[in-house]
Structure formats: C-alpha cells, structure tokens
UniProtKB/TrEMBL annotation:
Name recorded for this polypeptide: ABC transporter substrate-binding protein
Pfam family, one: SBP_bac_1
Keywords from the named record: Signal, Transport
Annotated InterPro entries: Bact_solute-bd_prot1, SBP
Organism: Petrotoga miotherma DSM 10691
Lineage: Bacteria, Thermotogati, Thermotogota, Thermotogae, Petrotogales
Amino acid sequence: MALRKFFGLVLVVLFGVVALSGVSVEIGISPREIGAVMDEHISNFEAQNPDIQIEWLKVPGVPGQQHSQYVTLFFGGSDKPDIIAMDIIWPGEFASRGWLAPLNEYFPEEEHAEFIENMIDAAKYEGDVYGVPLYINGLHLYYRKDLLKKYGFTPPNTWEELVEQASYIVEQEKDPNLYGYISMWGKIEGLFMNYLQFFWGKGGEFFDEEGNVVVNSKEGVEALQFMVDMIYEYNLAPESIVTYTPDDARILFQQGRAVFMVVQDFVWPILTASDSIVADKVDFMRVPYFEGYPDTNTVCLGGWLLGININSQHKEEAWKFIEYLTSHEAQLRTAAVTGNLPTRQSVYEDSRLVEQFPVANKQYKDFMVGNVRPSAQLGEKYTQVSEIMQREIQSALLRLKTPQRALDDAVSQINALLR
C-alpha cells in the first residue's frame, strides 16, 4: 500500500514536471553579445508564453570559437541549439551548407522593410531569408575634436582631407608619440573590412555585373596603395599597425596618441567613460570617401542575426522567441542595457532611445551609408576568401608585393577556390 502511494506520488510529480516544462527551446548566444539583458528577456518571454521554456547555451565570446562550436554541432546533425546567434558573415555559409531553416513563411517580404536594408541583404542566400537582424554595428571614424578645433579644421569628408589635416596636426604638435591615423590592420577580419572601406570609397565593388571578382581593378589597386602610403609615404600610421587589433588601436587612441582612428562602435562607451583622458575630446563620423565619390557607401557594417537550426524539433516556438527578441520593445531594451543598436528602424524614432543612448541616431545615420561584406554571395567560401584577402593585403602592407601583384594573386586564388 505504501509502495503504491509512493509510485503514485512519483507519477504525479513526473506528470507535473512535464506539464510545467512544456516545450524547451535552446538558444546559442554569447554573454558578450546581449548577455547583460538576456535573463530579463527570457523571463519576460516565458511569462508571456508559459508553455515555452528557454534554455540559454552560453557559447564563447570569440566569434571564431563560436563558429567552430556551431560547425561541430551542425556536422553532427544536432537538433540543438534551436536558435543560433550569427555573425553577419555566417548566414550565407550556414545556409549554403543546408544548416539553417529558411524563414520565408515566418518572415515575409513585406516585413523586411521594417529593418535596416543591408542587414536583411546579409540574411539572404539564393533568394531565401535565413536570419532576422538582432543588432547592428559598424566602422566609424573617431577623431580628436580638440585638435581639429585648435588648428581650425572641420571633420574631414574625404580621405584626402584627412591626410592633409593629420599631417599638419602631427607636424605642429611635435609629439613623437602622436600618430595621425590608426586602425586594426593586423591579419584579422577587421583588415578585410578596412580594405573594403577604401575600395568602396573609390567606387569599387567586389564583383562586377557578370559576377567576376574584380578587387584587382584600378579602384582596388588604388585603395590598397593608399593604405601602403598611409604608412610609408604620408608617415601617418605606424609600421606596427599591421599587428593591431581593434583594442590595440582603441588603447592608443585613449592614451591620446592618435588624431584619427577607424574601428567599430563598441569603443564609444570606453572612450567617453569618466576615467578616459579623451572623454571630452573625442567625436565620430562616417568613414570618409575619396574625392569625386561622395555617393559611395563606405561604412563597413557588422552585427548579429538570429536563425533557426534546420534540425530543430521546435521551429514554431523558436520563431516566437526570435520574434520577441527582435521586437521594438526588446530591441529598445537591449540597446539601453548593452549599447548594441537596433536593426528595427522604428526604434530610432522612439524618444526613449535618444534619452537612454544619445548617440544612437548619429550612429544610425552612419549605418545608412553602410555596406556589407560579400558573405551572402560567397556562401561557405566566404571565410577562405577573407583569409586570402587578409594575406595578400598584408603582403602589400609589408612591402613584400606591390598592391597590383598582391591583388592579382588574390583574384587568382579566389577564382581557383570558386571554380
């Protein structure tokens, strides 16, 4: 009798747990991305959807490590995580490999216009959409507004103006530790992003109308020659720039050792913190263009998107959580807590965003002259193409090859890869 009661109690508990648990949806996202607000989002969503439980798989903060973890899971045919947070350059690769569920039925064409257009472009592969933009970032030109004012300059619209201003300021300041320009030119993805901003600013495009890779065009070669000249001709960038990561550049700028800098927008809260010696001396603007090309989009965009694992057993429930995280209110809250800016355009019209994040609209204007890397077109080959470009760009920056030879070699290798 006592044994029957015990088993009866066990069954009640088990059925109770099943009833309470409902469907479990796992999301893979790094705490570095929106971790500061993730628990709040999960609690709010579960309160609105008591039949869905969200499990948070905390993947590594380094994108390359995240990528490796996802690739391992996908190759193994895992149905978890149901939702993955993707760097802007991954959807094309993952979709081309058959790892993502197309979202057309959940995310129809008419809703795409609610988001920043270039972010939607990055989410597409061969006409289908595989991701919803979660947040956006991009490269900006940071500058010492106190030094520009001191010498009577307005912020430069063109690279030619930047060279003129930086050269004059460095000469007048007579500080051997002051550089005219710094950025992230180490052999990393950021180097390819930097090259593209110069290439686009010359009116260049990665592919021509027939789909051929044309980085070795006149515009491409001139863009790379300009990078070389920034080091050796204009003497504005240190030779050590070829080793710099974004943080290396940020630290130098924050120490007051550079007039201009191009990196991502994560640096703004750090540069303007109360303990920063440049806090009241720094401002930012869109990345410049070259003379004669004022209509080019030069801001290389980054950001993260949410997609659904093709093997997920709970695609409908996964979509509900994606829909929640990318809603107006959730994106507003994410921006306020983490500083990661919205991809939904209506949020920039919300006065609460301006109150909580005063520079948001200024960054948004920069995003409107943004461009995305060719990851959607290259699919699973993008990472290898980027590595080829990084290697050949560096060979020119180290003066091992001329810019023409480096880019000819890059095109030859990329063509062989794409055959």
